[in-house]
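pasting for the record
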Amino acid sequence: MAIQHAYAKVSGVLENVTLQDIVEDALRMQGEILAHHNIKLLRDYGQAPPILVDRHKVLQILFNLLQNAKHACDKSNTSEKNIMVRIRARDNQQMAVCVLDNGMGIATEDLARIFSQGFSTRKDGHGFGLHSSLLMAQDMGGTLKAFSAGLGLGATFTLELPLTPKARSVQPGGQQNPPDCQLPFPPTSPADLCLPQKPT
């Protein structure tokens, strides 16, 4: 709660920070809950330069993504439940944060509308978390995309942000399997989705 209050006070302010710092704050907020649900948390951080962003918006997006990953793992039948957060530099202009889980996955027909307001794959979901996260990403000139190979095969959500603020992005959220966030081999089981990349 202290972290949430601290971020709320500076909402709307751009700061030069590392994504790793914001990700770690989000993980601290969710850590105890994930441990209580027997979900293993994995980190895979690449070299990342500082980025000028609204910390509060990035934190809120990551909080929503981690919550969704937790729910997906809760509903999965796999014995080893994993969530991985991966940070990658896309190029000299963009950074990406990927939240991967080996949970229940997303049906192909649901991927196209996963960011639509009011749509949720959960019976108790309100369909606002991902929609609002997409809007916040666009406000920062970024994108938010989803990928899943299907039900039972986990999911990957990727937040891409420019290193410096740009005009609001109008690109819709959608389906994508980001090259730097996917594994270079097809998963042999849902748990493989959260293993670190194998060297080539």
